[in-house]
Protein backbone atom coordinates (compact mmCIF):
# COMPACT_ATOMS: atom_id res chain seq x y z
CA UNK A 1 0.00 0.00 0.00
CA UNK A 2 2.93 2.35 0.69
CA UNK A 3 3.91 1.99 -2.97
CA UNK A 4 0.52 3.44 -3.86
CA UNK A 5 1.37 6.57 -1.86
CA UNK A 6 4.56 7.09 -3.86
CA UNK A 7 2.85 6.43 -7.20
CA UNK A 8 0.04 8.92 -6.56
CA UNK A 9 2.42 11.52 -5.12
CA UNK A 10 4.78 11.26 -8.10
CA UNK A 11 1.83 11.79 -10.43
CA UNK A 12 0.81 14.94 -8.54
CA UNK A 13 4.36 16.36 -8.65
CA UNK A 14 4.66 15.63 -12.39
CA UNK A 15 1.35 17.36 -13.17
CA UNK A 16 2.33 20.33 -11.00
CA UNK A 17 5.58 20.80 -12.94
CA UNK A 18 3.69 20.46 -16.20
CA UNK A 19 1.27 23.18 -15.08
CA UNK A 20 4.21 25.45 -14.21
CA UNK A 21 5.67 25.07 -17.71
CA UNK A 22 2.30 25.70 -19.37
CA UNK A 23 1.66 28.75 -17.16
CA UNK A 24 5.05 30.16 -18.15
CA UNK A 25 4.16 29.63 -21.82
CA UNK A 26 0.90 31.55 -21.45
CA UNK A 27 2.67 34.34 -19.53
CA UNK A 28 5.05 34.74 -22.48
CA UNK A 29 2.42 34.45 -25.22
CA UNK A 30 3.13 38.08 -26.23
CA UNK A 31 6.92 37.94 -25.83
CA UNK A 32 8.61 38.33 -29.25
CA UNK A 33 10.58 35.29 -30.35
CA UNK A 34 9.60 33.22 -27.29
CA UNK A 35 9.76 29.45 -27.79
CA UNK A 36 7.20 27.46 -25.84
CA UNK A 37 8.33 24.69 -23.49
CA UNK A 38 7.07 21.14 -23.81
CA UNK A 39 7.39 18.70 -20.90
CA UNK A 40 8.33 15.08 -21.46
CA UNK A 41 6.97 12.64 -18.88
CA UNK A 42 8.78 9.39 -18.19
CA UNK A 43 7.96 6.41 -16.01
CA UNK A 44 10.26 5.34 -13.22
CA UNK A 45 12.02 2.00 -13.87
CA UNK A 46 9.70 -0.98 -13.41
CA UNK A 47 10.22 -3.30 -10.47
CA UNK A 48 10.00 -7.06 -10.95
CA UNK A 49 8.11 -8.69 -8.06
CA UNK A 50 8.87 -12.27 -7.10
CA UNK A 51 7.55 -14.56 -4.37
CA UNK A 52 10.32 -16.25 -2.45
CA UNK A 53 9.90 -19.46 -0.54
CA UNK A 54 11.21 -22.95 -0.18
CA UNK A 55 10.18 -26.41 -1.28
CA UNK A 56 10.58 -29.46 0.95
CA UNK A 57 12.22 -32.36 -0.87
CA UNK A 58 11.22 -35.71 0.73
CA UNK A 59 14.64 -37.15 1.40
CA UNK A 60 16.15 -38.86 4.38
CA UNK A 61 17.83 -35.61 5.44
CA UNK A 62 14.79 -33.36 4.73
CA UNK A 63 16.25 -31.10 2.03
CA UNK A 64 14.71 -27.63 1.50
CA UNK A 65 15.31 -25.85 -1.82
CA UNK A 66 14.73 -22.07 -2.19
CA UNK A 67 12.28 -21.15 -4.95
CA UNK A 68 11.19 -17.88 -6.61
CA UNK A 69 7.86 -17.45 -8.39
CA UNK A 70 7.53 -14.35 -10.61
CA UNK A 71 4.47 -12.27 -9.73
CA UNK A 72 4.79 -9.48 -12.29
CA UNK A 73 6.06 -5.95 -12.70
CA UNK A 74 5.24 -2.85 -10.67
CA UNK A 75 5.53 0.71 -11.97
CA UNK A 76 6.22 3.28 -9.27
CA UNK A 77 4.96 6.41 -11.06
CA UNK A 78 6.08 9.10 -13.48
CA UNK A 79 8.25 12.22 -13.41
CA UNK A 80 9.07 15.12 -15.71
CA UNK A 81 12.15 13.86 -17.51
CA UNK A 82 12.99 17.12 -19.32
CA UNK A 83 11.56 20.35 -20.66
CA UNK A 84 12.12 20.82 -24.40
CA UNK A 85 11.64 24.16 -26.20
CA UNK A 86 9.61 24.10 -29.41
CA UNK A 87 11.69 25.89 -32.06
CA UNK A 88 8.92 26.23 -34.65
CA UNK A 89 8.95 29.76 -36.04
CA UNK A 90 6.24 32.10 -34.80
CA UNK A 91 4.12 34.40 -36.95
CA UNK A 92 5.68 37.61 -38.26
CA UNK A 93 4.05 40.86 -37.10
CA UNK A 94 4.83 44.21 -38.69
CA UNK A 95 5.57 47.03 -36.25
CA UNK A 96 6.95 49.78 -38.48
CA UNK A 97 9.80 50.41 -36.00
CA UNK A 98 13.17 50.48 -37.77
CA UNK A 99 15.04 48.83 -34.88
CA UNK A 100 12.70 45.81 -34.84
CA UNK A 101 14.12 42.89 -36.82
CA UNK A 102 12.52 39.54 -37.62
CA UNK A 103 14.63 36.54 -38.59
CA UNK A 104 12.54 34.67 -41.13
CA UNK A 105 13.58 31.08 -41.78
CA UNK A 106 13.84 29.96 -45.37
CA UNK A 107 15.38 26.60 -46.20
CA UNK A 108 17.27 24.75 -43.46
CA UNK A 109 18.69 21.41 -44.70
CA UNK A 110 18.92 19.87 -41.22
CA UNK A 111 15.53 19.43 -39.53
CA UNK A 112 17.05 19.98 -36.08
CA UNK A 113 19.03 23.06 -37.14
CA UNK A 114 17.99 26.61 -36.31
CA UNK A 115 19.11 30.22 -36.83
CA UNK A 116 19.48 32.95 -34.19
CA UNK A 117 20.59 36.52 -33.64
CA UNK A 118 23.78 36.76 -31.58
CA UNK A 119 24.00 39.03 -28.53
CA UNK A 120 26.44 39.59 -25.69
CA UNK A 121 25.23 39.09 -22.12
CA UNK A 122 26.36 40.98 -19.01
CA UNK A 123 29.31 38.62 -18.55
CA UNK A 124 30.58 39.34 -22.07
CA UNK A 125 29.58 35.88 -23.32
CA UNK A 126 27.91 35.19 -26.64
CA UNK A 127 24.29 34.09 -26.51
CA UNK A 128 21.58 33.41 -29.08
CA UNK A 129 18.05 34.76 -29.34
CA UNK A 130 15.09 34.92 -31.70
CA UNK A 131 13.80 38.12 -30.09
CA UNK A 132 14.54 40.94 -32.52
CA UNK A 133 12.96 43.65 -30.37
CA UNK A 134 16.08 45.84 -30.53
CA UNK A 135 16.78 49.51 -29.83
CA UNK A 136 19.72 51.92 -29.84
CA UNK A 137 21.33 52.91 -26.53
CA UNK A 138 22.80 56.26 -25.53
CA UNK A 139 26.19 55.39 -27.04
CA UNK A 140 24.67 54.53 -30.40
CA UNK A 141 25.00 50.73 -30.09
CA UNK A 142 22.26 48.36 -31.23
CA UNK A 143 21.04 46.50 -28.13
CA UNK A 144 18.29 44.09 -27.14
CA UNK A 145 15.39 45.15 -24.92
CA UNK A 146 17.39 43.79 -21.94
CA UNK A 147 20.36 46.00 -22.85
CA UNK A 148 22.54 43.26 -24.37
CA UNK A 149 24.77 44.27 -27.29
CA UNK A 150 23.70 42.87 -30.66
CA UNK A 151 26.78 41.43 -32.37
CA UNK A 152 27.99 41.51 -35.96
CA UNK A 153 29.43 38.61 -37.94
CA UNK A 154 32.83 39.14 -36.27
CA UNK A 155 31.38 39.10 -32.75
CA UNK A 156 31.65 42.86 -32.16
CA UNK A 157 28.90 45.23 -30.91
CA UNK A 158 27.16 47.08 -33.73
CA UNK A 159 27.54 50.87 -33.75
CA UNK A 160 24.66 52.53 -35.65
CA UNK A 161 25.11 56.14 -34.41
CA UNK A 162 21.36 56.60 -34.30
CA UNK A 163 18.03 55.17 -35.37
CA UNK A 164 18.50 55.90 -39.06
CA UNK A 165 19.78 52.70 -40.64
CA UNK A 166 18.60 50.12 -43.13
CA UNK A 167 18.79 46.34 -42.88
CA UNK A 168 18.76 44.40 -46.14
CA UNK A 169 17.12 40.96 -46.39
CA UNK A 170 20.54 39.26 -46.33
CA UNK A 171 21.34 40.84 -42.93
CA UNK A 172 23.55 43.65 -44.16
CA UNK A 173 23.04 46.71 -41.95
CA UNK A 174 23.66 49.98 -43.80
CA UNK A 175 24.61 53.12 -41.85
CA UNK A 176 26.27 56.43 -42.71
CA UNK A 177 29.54 55.00 -41.42
CA UNK A 178 29.45 51.92 -43.66
CA UNK A 179 27.95 48.45 -43.95
CA UNK A 180 27.89 45.90 -41.13
CA UNK A 181 26.83 42.26 -41.46
CA UNK A 182 24.52 41.10 -38.68
CA UNK A 183 25.79 38.12 -36.74
CA UNK A 184 23.49 35.19 -37.53
CA UNK A 185 24.33 32.02 -35.60
CA UNK A 186 23.43 28.51 -36.70
CA UNK A 187 23.20 25.40 -34.54
CA UNK A 188 23.00 21.89 -35.94
CA UNK A 189 20.89 20.61 -33.04
CA UNK A 190 18.71 23.25 -31.40
CA UNK A 191 17.58 20.73 -28.79
CA UNK A 192 21.13 20.74 -27.38
CA UNK A 193 20.89 24.45 -26.51
CA UNK A 194 20.31 25.54 -22.92
CA UNK A 195 17.44 27.95 -22.28
CA UNK A 196 18.65 30.64 -19.87
CA UNK A 197 15.69 33.02 -19.66
CA UNK A 198 15.09 36.46 -21.16
CA UNK A 199 14.84 34.73 -24.54
CA UNK A 200 18.52 33.71 -24.46
CA UNK A 201 20.04 30.35 -25.39
CA UNK A 202 23.58 29.09 -24.84
CA UNK A 203 25.42 26.35 -26.69
CA UNK A 204 27.70 25.60 -29.59
CA UNK A 205 27.28 27.34 -32.93
CA UNK A 206 28.38 25.90 -36.26
CA UNK A 207 29.04 27.22 -39.74
CA UNK A 208 25.88 27.88 -41.70
CA UNK A 209 25.62 24.93 -44.14
CA UNK A 210 25.25 25.35 -47.87
CA UNK A 211 21.65 25.57 -49.02
CA UNK A 212 20.46 27.42 -45.90
CA UNK A 213 18.36 30.48 -46.68
CA UNK A 214 16.85 33.17 -44.48
CA UNK A 215 15.68 36.78 -44.59
CA UNK A 216 15.88 39.69 -42.17
CA UNK A 217 12.66 41.72 -42.19
CA UNK A 218 13.10 45.22 -40.80
CA UNK A 219 10.19 46.85 -39.00
CA UNK A 220 8.74 43.49 -37.94
CA UNK A 221 8.96 41.00 -35.07
CA UNK A 222 8.62 37.25 -34.77
CA UNK A 223 5.79 36.54 -32.39
CA UNK A 224 5.76 33.85 -29.74
CA UNK A 225 4.89 30.38 -31.03
CA UNK A 226 2.68 29.68 -28.00
CA UNK A 227 -0.75 28.31 -28.90
CA UNK A 228 -2.76 29.91 -26.10
CA UNK A 229 -5.92 27.86 -26.65
CA UNK A 230 -4.02 24.59 -26.69
CA UNK A 231 -2.02 25.59 -23.61
CA UNK A 232 -5.23 26.40 -21.68
CA UNK A 233 -6.66 23.02 -22.64
CA UNK A 234 -3.49 21.25 -21.51
CA UNK A 235 -3.57 23.13 -18.19
CA UNK A 236 -7.11 21.90 -17.56
CA UNK A 237 -6.07 18.34 -18.42
CA UNK A 238 -3.09 18.54 -16.05
CA UNK A 239 -5.34 19.95 -13.31
CA UNK A 240 -7.83 17.09 -13.73
CA UNK A 241 -5.01 14.54 -13.56
CA UNK A 242 -3.68 16.26 -10.42
CA UNK A 243 -7.15 16.00 -8.82
CA UNK A 244 -7.39 12.31 -9.77
CA UNK A 245 -4.07 11.50 -8.12
CA UNK A 246 -5.15 13.57 -5.12
CA UNK A 247 -8.30 11.46 -4.70
CA UNK A 248 -6.26 8.26 -5.00
CA UNK A 249 -3.87 9.53 -2.34
CA UNK A 250 -6.80 10.37 -0.06
CA UNK A 251 -8.26 6.88 -0.56
CA UNK A 252 -4.93 5.28 0.39
CA UNK A 253 -4.75 7.51 3.46
CA UNK A 254 -8.24 6.46 4.60
CA UNK A 255 -7.36 2.79 4.06
CA UNK A 256 -4.22 3.16 6.13
CA UNK A 257 -6.24 4.88 8.84
CA UNK A 258 -8.65 1.94 9.01
CA UNK A 259 -5.77 -0.54 9.06
CA UNK A 260 -4.22 1.22 12.05
CA UNK A 261 -7.37 1.95 14.07
CA UNK A 262 -9.85 -0.84 13.27
CA UNK A 263 -7.80 -3.91 12.32
CA UNK A 264 -5.35 -3.26 15.16
CA UNK A 265 -8.24 -3.03 17.67
CA UNK A 266 -9.75 -6.32 16.50
CA UNK A 267 -6.47 -8.06 17.14
Automatic annotation (TrEMBL):
**What Gene Ontology cellular-component terms does the record carry?**
bacterial-type flagellum basal body
Domain Flagellar basal-body/hook protein C-terminal: residue ranges: 217-260
| Single GO BP term | bacterial-type flagellum-dependent swarming motility
UniProt KW keywords: Bacterial flagellum, Cell projection, Cilium, Flagellum
SUPFAM superfamilies (alphabetical): Flagellar hook protein flgE
Name the principal localization, coarsely classed. other
Q: Where is the Flagellar basal body rod protein N-terminal domain?
A: 5-35
Among NCBIfam families, the record links this protein to:
FlgEFG_subfam
The residue ranges of the Flagellar hook protein FlgE/F/G-like D1 domain are: 113-173
List localization entries.
Answer: Bacterial flagellum basal body
Task: Return the protein name.
Answer: Flagellar biosynthesis protein FlgC
| Family listed | Belongs to the flagella basal body rod proteins family.
Amino acid sequence: MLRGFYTAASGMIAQQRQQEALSNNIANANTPGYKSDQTALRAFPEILLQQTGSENIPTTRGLNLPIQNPIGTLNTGVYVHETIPNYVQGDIRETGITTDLALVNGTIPDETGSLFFTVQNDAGEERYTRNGNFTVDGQGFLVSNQGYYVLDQSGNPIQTNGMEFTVLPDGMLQTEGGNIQLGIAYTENANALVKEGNGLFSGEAAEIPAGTTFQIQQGALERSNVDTLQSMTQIMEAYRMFETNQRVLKAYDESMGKAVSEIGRLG
